[in-house]
Amino acid sequence: MTDNKKELDAGGLFAGILLIGLGTLFLLDRLGYADFHYVLHDYWPMVLVALGISRFVDRRRAWSGIWLIIVGLWLQATSMHWYGLTFHSSWPLLLIAAGSVMVLRALLQGIRKESTEARNDR
Known about the structure:
By secondary structure, this protein is mostly helical.
């Protein structure tokens, strides 16, 4: 008997819902029913964070999701000047984040490889 269950693409579903929501906000803004200009101007980097979350849900694209989340949060912090951060003063944070993600990825791949080898030795 074959199993015809199809796996739900949660990342694609989330990204699609996000695009529908953004399109609705833009449409309401353009038709004059609501004024979302200030929200979009101040919080546009959160779109990158949301897209990063949708990629993070898909295990094959998790690392690109992490990058989108990091860059989105960094852009949000610089555009809102959290803790006095500006683009000019905070770009080294991206280098720190890049190095941290590279180290974490290498460590996790090493742990995964060791556990796979241990299971194969049994």
